Amino acid sequence: MEKHISHKFDEDLEQIKNMVLKMGGVVEQQIADAVKAVETADSDLAEKVIRVEDEVDLKEVELDEACTSVLACRQPAASDLRMVLAITKMTRDLERMGDEAQKVAKMAIALQESGSKGYEEARHIGALVQKMVNTVLDAFARFDVEQALEVARTDKEVDREYKSAMREIVTYMMEDPRAITRSMNILWTLRAIERIGDHARNIAEHVIFLVKGLDVRHTSLQEIERRISNI
C-alpha cells in the first residue's frame, strides 16, 4: 500500500490490518478445535470453542469501530478506501466463520452426551477448509492475489467433496433407517464446515478487490481469472 505524509494515517491502517489478522488467528484456531472436537466427541474442547465465540464477537465490534474512526477522521480515497471497505466485509465473514465453528462444537457436545463416536466424515472436508482459512489470511497479510485465487479453487473442491458426502450419507439413511439421526447430524456438521469454506472464499474475493480494485462477487472462478489476467 502507498505511504502517506501523515505517519499516523499509515499507523491507523496498519493497526486495523493487524487487528484483522489477530481476529483471523483466533477464528482459525476456533475452527481447528471445532473440527477436532467433532471428530473425537470431545465436549471439553467444544466448550472452549463456544467460549471463544464471545471473544470473536468483541473483536468484530472493535474492528467496526476502528474502521468507522478511520473513515470519519481520515476520509480515505482510492486504495486506502478499498482497504477499509474490504476489512469491514472481511470482519463480517470472520465472525460468521466463528458462528459456524460454534455449530460444529455444539454437535460435538451432543455426540458426547449421547455416547456416540465422533464423525470421521468431517476430517477430510475439515482439513480442506482449514487450509483455505490459513491461505486466505496469508493472502491478506501479503496482498497476494494468487493465494486468493488458490482459495477460490479449493472452495470448488470442498463443494464437490460436500456433495459427494451428502449423496453417500443419504444413501446410507435409505438403506438403514436406524442411522437417520446420526446421518442427519453428520450432514448438519458437514454443512457448517462447508459454509466456513464459503466465507473463506468471500474473504479471498475481498482481497482481490483490495489489491486489484475488481469486484468479483457472484463471479465464476474462470471469469475471475480472466479478468485478473487482463489487468
Automatic annotation (TrEMBL):
It is found in: Cytoplasm. The keyword Cytoplasm applies. Pfam families: PhoU (PF01895). InterPro entries: PhoU (IPR028366), PhoU-like_sf (IPR038078), PhoU_dom (IPR026022). Residues 20-107, 123-207 form the PhoU domain. PANTHER family: PHOSPHATE-SPECIFIC TRANSPORT SYSTEM ACCESSORY PROTEIN PHOU. Homodimer. This is Phosphate-specific transport system accessory protein PhoU. The gene is phoU.
